[in-house]
Amino acid sequence: PILAEWFETPKGSYVLAWERGQFDSAVEDVFGFNAVQVGLPGLDFLRESRIPLKVRAGLDPGCGLRSEPVQLPLASQSIDLVALPHVLEFNSQPHAILREAERVLMPEGSIVISGFNPLSLWGAARAFGWERRHYPWCGRFIGLLRLKDWLALLGFELTGGRFGCYAPPFSQGR
Fold this sequence. Notes:
Number of helices: 5
Strand content: 15-25%
Largest sheet: 5 strands, parallel
Low-confidence stretches: none
């Protein structure tokens, strides 16, 4: 199954509900004219954004803008908000995706990223090989310090961040 299908499982819906709340609060006060969500087209992570033009980009069915995340057919400095829900950990070129996001973002634009923390209970489950062939465990989780480093090299200024979903990654809802 793909990641979008995993979000329909009990574990996935728990994570999705928390992440949607985080995206909602992160994007609601970002102003501008153009926003792009890369990946997961069936899930609207820009739903609370006030930006009038929102598009979902990627190669999955349902993307309004069909393109590789490393080569967005958008003008440089034309986007006010880029949302990257779990895109970096499920692509072989996470650096290139961040460089492309930096290229299309307007000066003072915003980027919102979500991902699994390799230093969490969920990351430990992945490290021990639980379900390693299935989503989300097959992804390459990126640590916060590494991500901060990559963003700093591209000139991004970190303005916020949250950790969440502290329940163990078990199949039972309890």
